[in-house]
Amino acid sequence: MEGTPATIFSPEQFTPDERKMGEATERFVREQVMPFVKRLEHGEPRQMRDILIESAMLGLLGIDVPTEYGGLGLPKTTSALITEKTALQPSFAVAHAVHTSVGSLPILLFGTEEQAQHCLPKLTSGEYIGAYALTEPESGSDALAARTRAELRGDTYYLTGNKIWITNAGFADLFVTFAKVDGERFTAFLVERAPGLIVEREEHKLGLHGSSTCRVVYEGVPVPVNRRLGAEGQGAYVALYTLNIGRFKIAAAANGVAKEVFRIGWEYAHERKQFGKPIVAYDLVWRKLVRNSVQTYAVESALYRLAGDLEQAFKQPNENRQAGWRQASARFAAECALIKVASTENLHQVVDDALQIHGGYGFSEEYPIAQFYRDTRVNRIYEGTNEINRLNLVERLLHARRQGAWTSQRAKVALGGDTIAETLQTLRYLTGETLVRLETVPEVPQAIVEPLADALIALYLLDSAALRAQQTNHPLHHALVAHYHEGVKRQLLSWWTDLMDEPAPSFHLTPMSDLYQSVWAQMRS
């Protein structure tokens, strides 16, 4: 979790061509998706399939797929930028994300060359639309408790069971499906739509009404042996390695939505007048905009730092390219869990504040904030609830420590203090000492997980934001980091009390009003 301004990637480093790709994606969403939102939400979900096929013409269905399979093979940094732009319309974003991440990446990470040649060109062109069938009525977060069975007879498996909450199910052609062979060995399969695969009615969801979400029933669906994904019993690895990257993609999408919602709230605050002046002139309004900017800057800094690290890891030479990709996914599992939690919780706050700025109009479906409020709530639930991801973060770091792959700061020096470097040192000591104590504990107490995970998140975000500000040397960036740093210091005292059996270090606290004014002055300049 340590780096330098020269070693991290930040959004300011995008090339003109990469920015143009982001702009082209944004134009597509605004011009080819948004005008059809009402039809998508009130009509036939299969209309989404037509939009996905249109997006394939821009290469949007193959952003992470290598060129030899018909994709664009983009860097993880550019892929994150494009994912941000697709998220401007959440129903399209979730359909696109499932197709391009968990619907396609399992084949890249675990598929045979024959499977890749057969499936990936069809997925990148839109001939096939992908879905990911993992969750069951009795197994949500506990995926290994799945009851769907696969029975091998000759050279064919026959799948029987039920899956729920399957995105794109209403029009998907290829289902990455998980089942237990002989009721024991958890295994992944590439299941094409065929007799015996029954897609039931669309779920009546709180939000994302334009996306397709259905229960899928498997009644002895035949799957040839050559469509098994990985070895028998390897399904947990297929699921987890894929979900790591899927969580990173959710974080990128959440960051894109947060920036769009912030824009809407900003514009409304300047347009709406009460008591003779725009409501943005009132402290209780503009301070919300400052808080949103501060947190989004920290999240975005960490997101693109991680994107750069993932890209470097995926590019590492390896005799077995697939093995290298799997290693890269596993190596950054903790960071992917971390950034998913941080970005989706920031999005929740940004949307809530934007609705509050709209007042009563925000509660009306005539304004876009109401739909964003409904559509974004699920972000803290799917691809692993944020509670599960906090557990994953802590458990992955504990596993890395036990394997000797990650060491934490334990030197008790310069605790407390006023500078960002001193706060980072304190956070590293706090989290390191806590992880050391937990190494020999059979099961981590969940009462410790939340403060420890939140301290780890703050450590990663503060370090990333500070390095980015040093890199750009932009006055607004420095003001945003100073504000975020002060908030972390105040939270740190609470985390210390929950995690340590020794007195907390002392901090000099800066009046928040001064920091709000500093950020606000830079935002308006």
Task: Record keyword descriptors for this entry.
single chain; 525 residues; alpha+beta; Butyryl-Coa Dehydrogenase, subunit A, domain 1; Butyryl-CoA Dehydrogenase, subunit A, domain 2; 8-stranded mixed beta sheet; two-stranded antiparallel sheet
Can you lay out the helices and strands and say which pair or pack?
Layout: H1 16-33, H2 37-42, H3 47-56, H4 76-86, H5 90-100, H6 105-110, H7 113-125, E1 130-133, E2 149-153, E3 156-167, E4 174-181, E5 185-192, E6 197-202, E7 213-224, E8 228-229, H8 235-271, E9 273-274, E10 277-278, H9 283-315, H10 321-331, H11 333-358, H12 368-376, H13 386-402, H14 420-438, H15 446-472, H16 475-499, H17 512-524
Parallel strand pairs: 1-4, 2-4
Antiparallel strand pairs: 2-3, 3-7, 4-5, 5-8, 6-7, 9-10
Helix pairs in contact: 1-4, 4-8, 5-8, 8-9, 8-11, 9-10, 9-11, 9-15, 9-16, 9-17, 11-12, 11-13, 13-15, 14-15, 14-16, 15-16, 16-17
Could you explain the architecture of this structure?
This protein has 525 residues and is an alpha+beta fold. Among the domains are: 11-125, Butyryl-Coa Dehydrogenase, subunit A, domain 1 (Orthogonal Bundle); 130-231, Beta Barrel (Butyryl-CoA Dehydrogenase, subunit A, domain 2); 407-525, no CATH class. Helix content is 56%, strand content 12%. The chain contains 17 helices and ten strands. It has helices at residues 16-33, 37-42, 47-56, 76-86, 90-100, 105-110, 113-125, 235-271, 283-315, 321-331, 333-358, 368-376, 386-402, 420-438, 446-472, 475-499, 512-524, and strands at 130-133, 149-153, 156-167, 174-181, 185-192, 197-202, 213-224, 228-229, 273-274, 277-278. The strands form two sheets. Strands 1, 2, 3, 4, 5, 6, 7 and 8 form an eight-stranded mixed beta sheet that branches. The protein has a two-stranded antiparallel ribbon with strand order 9-10. A hairpin with a 3-residue loop joins strand 4 (174-181) and strand 5. The longest helix has 37 residues, at 235-271. 49% of the residues are buried. The model has no long low-confidence stretch (mean pLDDT 94).
